[in-house]
Design goal:
single chain; two-stranded parallel sheet; globular; 3 domains; about 55% helix; about 425 residues; alpha+beta; 6 strands
Length: about 425
């Protein structure tokens, strides 16, 4: 307790100076669990620093703190850097770079956010250097939610377009870079030059990721190919998220090229994106996207979300109903890594149960499915799964979530009604 009082007395209000930092650094280095907890309490009470000297001392302390253990509720090194967020301009950029090279990944993320919060040309230049220069990218940590979002309010944020475009294809960064770029386009707005630069980056990225999907579709190497395809599709989806956020005539030609992918899921995304832009998609492309259950699930979900499921399907002459969407969603869920990991060999509809809702009626649909040897589930024979709730026209009620579920129970282990009850209970548990 005395150590706590000493450090708190050295702090001016909720600010810290050189003496406070030195005292906390000594507590963290003592090796005593009690002293470490006292130090963390003091650090989390600080909201800013007194001056540039204290800021430099905090950077040094953050680099030298030992990694957290199971007893730490807060990483003291990260907490130290977060103190600097309130006054990011008091940190010397060369010292930030030096700390970044020596720090652990959680601290590096905090330092990246420190640079993003500066919102000045020098800070932005340093951020570009750390994120994009050869050698420095070897030290780039995996992102966490919110990382770099503070930079979106910077007037020069367009300078990061090229860097984030390159990170779109970096493993682990695809979703985060995609989200930041899409927010730039939608919320901040990009000038004509930045949009043109972004399109130049996106065109080869989309072509490359679509090509990976095409290659994965042609591979017949069991579960390994399924995981490869799943990852490739996610990369395409992240690139498309950025493409769809841009208001430019060039986007339509990029989406039209994606229609020709050998992967029907990619084709489904392209159909929905073009329909959202008001483009009449050829009927045969809609049929191709709706033919396979997994791509049909994607297509119907995205068109339903934008209110175009009926118009696109009806215009193409393709039928639609709740059973075909339920089958598609169940198969898509079963094919994920962690479930069957592949498409079931056969799927058949068994029964439906209607559920009254405030907005009408919707169906919960039961199916049986099986796989062929050598898949692990082949010995179980016919199994049951279900999906719901869907209206008769294939749309989903807005007041309830839709679910796909299975317990991999054998079909002959219970009656149809018992299976429906079991699946409904499992869906509620989801």
């Amino acid at each position: 307790m005395r150590s706590t009082l000493v450090v708190m007395r050295l702090s001016r209000g909720n600010r810290c100076g050189l003496e406070s930092v030195a005292r906390v650094q000594g507590l963290l280095a003592s090796g005593q669990p009690g002293d470490r907890a006292v130090a963390v309490d003091c650090i989390t009470s600080w909201v800013s620093v007194d001056d540039e000297a204290a800021a430099a001392a905090i950077l040094t302390a953050a680099v030298n703190v030992s990694p957290p253990d199971h007893a730490d509720e807060v990483d003291p090194a990260v907490a130290l850097v977060e103190v600097l967020w309130a006054t990011p301009h008091w940190t010397d950029l060369e010292e930030v770079e030096a700390a970044y090279l020596l720090a652990r990944d959680p601290v590096r993320r905090a330092l990246l956010d420190l640079l993003a919060r500066r919102r000045d040309p020098a800070g932005l230049l340093t951020l570009r250097h750390v994120l994009g220069d050869p050698g420095w990218t070897d030290h780039l940590p995996l992102p966490t939610p919110g990382l770099l979002s503070q930079v979106l309010g910077h007037a020069g944020v367009e300078d990061l377009v090229a860097i984030l475009g390159a990170l779109l294809l970096r493993p682990g960064w695809e979703a985060h870079a995609s989200g930041l770029l899409a927010r730039m386009a939608r919320e901040v707005g990009l000038g004509a030059g930045a949009v043109e630069e972004l399109i130049e980056l996106l065109e080869p990225a989309l072509d490359a990721t679509v090509e990976h999907c095409d290659e994965a579709i042609g591979c017949r190497n069991g579960g390994e190919a399924s995981v490869w395809l799943w990852r490739s599709r996610h990369r395409v989806r992240h690139v498309l998220d950025v493409v769809e956020s841009i208001d430019s005539p060039a986007v339509e030609s990029m989406l039209t090229r994606s229609l020709g992918s050998a992967d029907p899921v990619v084709g489904a995304w392209a159909v929905a994106a073009l329909a959202a832009r008001g483009t009449d998609v050829p009927w045969d492309r809609v049929w191709m996207a709706a033919h396979e259950p997994v791509s049909r699930s994607v297509l119907m979900e995205r068109l339903d979300c934008i209110g175009l499921l009926g118009s696109v399907f009806d215009r193409s002459g393709r039928s639609r109903d709740g059973v075909m969407r339920a089958e598609a969603d169940l198969v898509a869920w079963l094919s994920r890594p962690g479930e069957l990991g592949c498409l079931p060999s056969e799927v058949e509809h068994i029964a439906s149960r209607e559920v009254p809702l405030e907005s009408g009626r919707a169906g919960f649909h039961l199916f049986r499915f099986r796989t062929r040897a050598p898949h692990w589930a082949s010995a179980r024979g016919w199994m049951v799964g279900a999906a719901g709730l869907y209206r008769s026209d294939g749309t989903v009620p807005t007041d309830l979530p839709q679910v796909a579920v299975t317990r991999y129970d054998c079909e002959d282990s219970a009656s149809t009604d018992d299976h429906l009850d079991s699946m409904a209970a499992a869906a509620e548990g989801e």
